Structure formats: C-alpha cells, structure tokens
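Collaborator request, handled under Task 6.
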Amino acid sequence: MLSTLASCSAIDFGLWMSDGQSVNKTKTGSKCCVCDWSPDGQLLAIGLFNGTILIKDKAGGELFTINKCASPVWALAFCPQKFETSDNLLMAGSWDQKLSLYSIQGGKQAKPIGNEKDLGFDPCSISFFPKGDYMVMSGSDRKITLWNREGVLLGTVGEMEDWIWSTAVNPTNRAVFAGGNNGQIQLHHVHMNQVHGLYQERYAYRELMTDVIIQHLVTETRVKIRCRDYIKKIAIYKDRLAVQLNEKIIIYSVSPEDPYDMKYKAHKKINKKIDCQNLFVFSHHLVLCFEKKIQLLAFTGVLEREWVLETNIKYVKPLSGPPKRESLLVGCHDGSVLKIFIDNGFPIPVVKQTTPVSLVDISADRQKIAVIDDFRSLFVYDVKTQELLFQERNVTSIAWNLEVEDMLAYTGQDSLFIKCRDLPAQ
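Structure tokens returned to the collaborator:
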C-alpha cells in the first residue's frame, strides 16, 4: 500500500509519495494554515489564510472550493469515523471566530450542517478523539475545550497562560496534549462519567453528552431525545424522565396507561442552575441530593421540603409508592440506613452498622434489607427484628427480586450469585 504525505507552505502544497523520486507541488494563491486527510485517505482539505478551504483528491487534483469567510481558516479536521451516512464530516474554525461543520458528499460538494457557531475566540487547532464522537479545540481564549461531533460545547479540559496553537489526542487513550505560544506543553486526561438512570424495564443513558437514549428492556424499543446541550444528570421513574442541563431541568412524560409507550414529550421545565450530587424524579417531584441534605422540589421549581442529616450521604435509592408519597432509602457514612417518605419531614431509622454504607436495597415486601459497606462486605438484615440473616465478602452489587421476597442477586469475584431463603447461593 502506497503512503502519501501532504506538506503545506505559504505559497503551495506538495504530495510526497513513498515510491516517488520527486514532489508534486501545486500553487495555492494564499498561505496554507492547516490541512487534514479524510479517514479513507481519498480527500485532502486545506485551510487558507484568505478564508477558503480547498478540497483535493489523493493525487492533488482540485475537486471544489469552500468559500467559508474572509478570515484565515486556521483550524480544520475530518471526523475519523462516519456516522449515519457515508459522507465525510469536516469541522472548520476560522478567525472570524466561527465554527462550521460540513458534510462532504462523495467528493463533489460540501453541504453545511446547521448554523455556524459563534466561538468568541480565534480557533487555532481542532483534534478529534479516535472514535470521532468528541473533539478538543484551542486558540486565543487560552483554553482547551471539549466538543461533540455536532459542534456542541461540553466543557473546558484545561487552561494555559498564552494562546494555544496546537492540540493532539492520544489515539490509545483519552490523553490530550496542548502546546502554547509561550513554549509550554500540557497533558490532560479526560474522564467521561457514565450518566444513566434505570427504573424496572426502562433504561436511559447519555449519548454524545447531549442526547438521551431510552430503551425498553422488554420490547427492545429505543428512542432518542436530542437536548443540544450538555447533559449533567438523568433520572427515570414510571412515566417520568428528568434531564438536567446546564441552566435548567426538563421533565418528560409518557402515557401512564400504556406500559409500552415510548413517545416522551416535554411535560415541565425548571429554569434553575442546580449543582447537586444526585437527581431523582417521582410522579410530581424532583429529589436533589447533596453532601448532607436532601431537597424535595415540585415540578414548578418550588422547594417543598428539606432533610438535613448529621453525616454524609453515601447512597440513595428511590422507592415506588402512591403519588406524592414515594420514599427514599438512604445509606450514610456513619453506617446508618434511613427511610424517608417525601410527605414526612422526619427520616425513619431502618438499620445501623459500624461501617460506611456503599450500596443498599430492600426486598419486595420491605421485610429484608441488604447492605454493602465500603469494604465490599454484604449484610442482609430482617427489618423488624434487626437480626443479621446473611453475610458475604467481596460483593460489588446487589438487587432484590421485585416479586419474590426471598430472592437476592449479588455480584462478586467476576460472578453473579442468586440466593433464595436459607439455601446456598448459586
């Protein structure tokens, strides 16, 4: 397989062939600022100082030109993967402080995707992650910012003391390198937490940081909600879905009469910026969890109730119930497990142990409770008598059967165990 290297200068660009004896150079008419190959190696995009983008074939022949603006195109990159269609995705940033996204259709024309994004700074570098879902951008704002492939700003990865001229993503992990105008090079590791919610047969999770995917685990149907904003948290309960964005929380709903309805529609909107650790949704309320307190918010945004605890909250599990009378199971750092009914201002003690609680779940008839502590030890108690019924080590997760009172599932040591009553775990 032949390899080709493209090099650009102030007056031309050249193609270096691995088996060639000479370099084919072509005049450009303006200074070349940036270039990139398409993932299949068939197209070469060159951003010029006069604001145009040249699209060349692999032999250097001109296919067409994109007249982006009158300012230098200094940042440009092809998405390394193709999604939905077979078209190439080209991201281009120019010094009129705008970001454009193009679909290159078969090397014949470039179709703009959406409107140009106002950046507020001069972009100097764009670098995609290997899978193409995300990219980093840098420039005169002295920041390394994270974006998805649809051109939605997700957040700031890092900052430097001067302009950042170049960024690069390690292809084997999510390490991002940045080179500044002052000669410094920085390394940042990008961690993307999983944001999801589960209620019985409905599972919702975040995709591309800006979309919500809801799956019905029984019918295997799947729907997508495009939020076009950074999604911070997701909560799901019966016919409700809550999505927390940067400046608001949107509550969606489906028909409560149809257990298979997946046509989620916006139901309520709370225009508040809330920085909480966990978010849960019930029939008529949102539950916000902080370090030592829990707040109950109506869908109107009004704070109805607050519970302040004496110790740090380690784990919260929402429990179903009649509308406006649902409850929460709360595990604390001091080893206590509390039950909170949202229509009652006083937490109810359920069990108390000496080690911090990591996970907790309660059986179908609310007669038995299972607790995992910070040392991965599992304890199963009788709620009424407080008797310790079962104990196991090296356990990472637990779940009671929703219909059978005495059936408990737990995982540990790369295995799934099922325990029924006093029988040995299988």
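The cover message to the collaborator said: "The two ends are 54 Å apart (CA to CA). The first strand starts at residue 4 and ends at 8. Please let us know whether this matches your experimental observations."
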